Amino acid sequence: MDIDKLFKVPRLPTSSKRKMPDNPTPEMLKKMRLDTPLNEDLVDSAMDVEIPESSSAPRRQSRRVTVEDGDDKMVDTSFAPGGDADYFVEEDEEGRFYGGGLTSEQKQILSIFESAEGEGTTEDPEGISITSIRRTLLKFERAANKNQDQRSKYPDDPSKFIDSEADLDSALKSLLSLAQSPVLAYPELVRSGSVSLLIGLLSHDNADIVIDVVDVIHELTDEDVGNELEDEEEQEEAQVALKTLIEALLENSILELLVDNLSRLNETEESDRQGVFHILGIFENILGFNPDLSLLLVSKTKLMNWLLNRVQSKTHDENRGYSAELLSILLQNNAANRQDFGKKDGVEIALNVLSQFRRRDPVDADETEFMENLFDALCSALAEPEVKSFFLASEGVDLMLLMMREKLQSKSRAIKTLDYAMSGPAGTATCANFIEVLGLKTLFATFMGKGSKKIKSNAPAAASEDIPHILGIISSLFSNTPSDSPDRIRLLAKFVENNYEKADKLLEVRENARNRLKVVDAEIAAEKKETIANGGEIESEEEDLFYLRRLEGGLFTLQTVDYILAWVVMEDDGIRGHITQMLERKNQSLKDIISTLQIYRDNLDADIQSNGLATDHAPEGGALSQKEILQHLVDFLHECL
Fold first, then answer.
1. What is the pTM of this model?
2. I need a surface site. Which of 76, 82, 468, 632 has the fewest CB within 10 A?
3. Residue 25: what are its φ and ψ, rounded to 5°?
């Protein structure tokens, strides 16, 4: 075994190496050779480098290093791995030599990169002062004014204003650091007039400058601004500062200018695509801070048109997904925006886009989110009677039933959409159309869990998610289908067939809801007991919160089931006897159903307020209100006791 050969080249620890930056440009290398001096202090202290005069020999091979030791012996060190410049300089605590793995040239190049990176670093937020903020704003103001002046003097000669444009770009990027100190920076930004100057640049001829401005505003209005502050008082001050900034932005017509730039930017370019993404992000930031601004955003701009057009894109990307999300946010709690959505063919567009998911699932999580946001937008819009009419005219019921039969990811969303479309007196026509196109068969097959084998393993989770909406559809059918009509008879027949299996399923769902509600009621009772024991009182607001917890904990499902059971008990003697018998097996009776319906009736105003639906008031055409229907059902059940 050749021991010398084994120990000639020590193994280099990879963890200590620093990689050279990728692809240094020739200009950078030239600058390094001409302008950057060698680190001679370090090298001279350990070695002397002798370079032969002949330039024809390879430079790395001709380099020889002599090391001076106590005996003044010359040692050949040409075996240094990779020409490592520090191989004979760096040593660890135990005297082992490893080096840095870089040649002198590579070390110098790396030093250049590190110097450049150091120049671009931002200040520590703790070091930001009002003086530095004013200096940054002044720099920005001068750069913007200089660029505007040179562009006006030499509009046809870009060489005259290109330097000032580069300075403006740099000044804009320096404004990003202001987000680190909103309490100091934002009021000064507004006071100095820099906000109006910044907004004015959204009309700049250079799209790159516009994108810079968008990036700055997106960063300044980020919802997380001030959240990193530990003191709650400082966080509140940051929110006040953010409010001041947003109000100033709105005063300078930022919404209109941003929407105008959406159509100006070319999304085939990566930078422009990012600019569009950040514009949508600004809208989300502003709406997150003040949701009421959604009405202003839709009424004062053409954003709704742009969003509806963007979601129709044939190829899916992040901006398409973001557009669907923003559309859902705009329609969430604003009746005027929902009506505008309907008037601009939003229902037809949404149904056309969603139809692609009738035969296929979304390809990834992003497209799944896109589909869900579009369904959510449609469901929000269906709270308006006019939109229900558009949905019916666009054959929305047919499409949703097709999705239910295909049993793909869109199935659950289709059931939810039908629940919204058929609810309330305005859903009467939709209920009639649902029965006409044979929706009862599909609905009750889903309710009973009769699906295809390929989704059998996923059936339980899907059923638990869909049950509340299926119950909502059945409830709407009983509320909106005229008595003694053929449609009503077809609906009741579903509960009679197969030995009342649908009624038994309802009782099963009811029992599960009761068990969940018992747990929540026990928790609430313990909390009330503790509050009273500590000398406190249960306020009305707390009672409302307790009721909402009960709704989420099973009471809502229980109310809906008992509402349906009351209808079938009232209209069919055979079902009444069967249900009474099944309830007795659980030590219950029709009194329990009456109790549930009374709670439902007494709290109907709170339910309406929380859901934003005005079904409590008497609907047009002389039909009974929901509260009146509940009272009639309670009276009838009392007579059956």
1. 0.76
2. 76
3. -75, 155
